[in-house]
Design a protein that fits this description.
381 residues; alpha+beta; Endonuclease III, domain 1; Nucleoside Triphosphate Pyrophosphohydrolase; 2 domains; five-stranded mixed β-sheet; 9 strands
Length: 381
């Protein structure tokens, strides 16, 4: 990738600002319906920015309105329990962001009476708020002259002003862009300009394409005449195969669950007791080993993924009495959870097992017709 060491200042500033106005108009027509752009506040910006990190716009659209309805103010968010936040975050993934959002809300309430300050230094002093998020809160939340420079914005502006197709995005580049566009941010709406640049980088000017004929900045963009010499896509991360056995223990409408501990996957969530029966990653220590000896591959299963693991989940059913007998040596803290309760905070995989059980129950499938069960399990000595 190329780097930008010197900005080319021979731009016609007035012409550039007119083109930015066209970009803003294009963005408003196509994207002002996004729920986090309706009734913008610094608080709603904090929520949307944390949600949009590492998650697609389409996914956030599904979850943002309900989250804001449940936690309409920063005080409401700060006053919720960690488990309540994780439940409300369900479906967005990367649950660490939910914990960071919750902590940030509590810090803003504690140190600023629930206000989100305008000063950069005060923002980055809050746990979980880095340079980008602080700039986004100033620019998009408060509509102050600042650029929230993510990869999309850096790429669009580097192509537009310097003709660098694949820029190296680092602190020096961000500072260069901030300084160069400070005047435009002072005369245009910083919020509108930031949002429109993000929209452009997400749709027409991505890392692997440039649709210059459709671009509002295409007329004078320095990257327009360049060949489409994009970097090769990075190979997908090698994934390890992992076989887990999910143990379903029912008690009326309740199921047996365990809480994931700090440092484990899905920290703070609840899931069915789970065991590793096969792992290509010999260093994996997320779950205890399955103590049984049986042909588990015959059991009903479903796939999931997490980080670098391709998981095949096999379902095993037993009674509470059988569970105590079979797995006495692996006895973490249990909790019986109402399967129908929205506040259960069950992991996605556990919900899938529960739905499978419900489906077979409705279809009146015999107990011996799906999953593994205690009668065909032999415990290793």
């Amino acid at each position: 990738m190329a780097s930008i060491s010197v900005v080319k200042y021979n731009f016609n500033i007035m012409q550039m600002e007119e083109e930015f106005k066209q970009l803003i108009a294009w963005s408003r027509v196509g994207f002002n319906h996004l729920p986090w752009r309706l009734g913008r506040t610094p608080y709603s910006t904090l929520v949307s920015e944390l949600m949009l990190q590492q998650t697609t716009v389409a996914t956030v659209i599904k979850h943002y309105p309900n989250f804001l309805k449940k936690y309409p103010t920063i005080h409401a968010l700060a006053g919720a329990s960690a488990e309540e936040i994780l439940i409300a975050w369900k479906g967005l993934g990367y649950y660490r962001r939910a914990r960071l959002l919750h902590q940030a809300a509590k810090d803003f309430v504690k140190h600023f009476a629930g206000n989100i300050p305008e000063e950069f230094e005060e923002l980055v002093a809050i746990a979980g708020i880095g340079d980008y998020t602080a700039s986004a809160l100033r620019s998009i939340g408060h509509n102050l002259p600042a650029l929230a420079i993510d990869a999309n914005v850096a790429r669009v502006l580097s192509r537009y002003q310097s003709g660098v197709l694949n820029p190296t995005i680092n602190r020096k580049l961000r500072e260069t862009l901030q300084n160069f566009y400070h005047h435009s941010l002072a005369v245009l709406s910083p919020r509108a300009l930031n949002e429109s640049l993000m929209d452009l980088g997400r749709t027409l000017c991505t890392a692997n394409k440039k649709l210059c004929t459709e671009c509002p900045l295409g007329k004078n963009c320095r990257a327009k005449p360049l060949a489409n010499d994009f970097p090769a896509r990075k190979p997908s991360q090698v994934k390890y195969n992992l076989h887990l056995i999910r143990v379903l223990v029912m008690r009326g409408k309740e199921i047996l669950t365990v809480k994931r501990c700090k440092g484990q996957w899905l920290e703070g969530q609840r899931e069915l007791p789970s065991f590793v029966v096969l792992s290509e990653d010999k260093k994996l220590k997320q779950y205890p080993k399955w103590p049984g000896r049986n042909d588990y591959k015959k059991w009903e299963s479903f796939p999931t993924t997490i980080t670098k693991y391709k998981i095949k989940n096999f379902i095993f059913r037993c009674t509470w009495k059988e569970y105590q007998h079979l797995f006495a040596k692996s006895a973490p803290e249990f909790e019986w959870v109402d399967l129908m309760a929205e506040s259960s905070n069950l992991s996605t995989a556990s919900l899938k097992v529960a739905r499978t059980h419900a489906r077979h129950h409705e279809e009146d499938v015999g107990a011996d017709c799906w999953g593994g069960c205690a009668t065909d399990t032999y415990i290793r000595d």
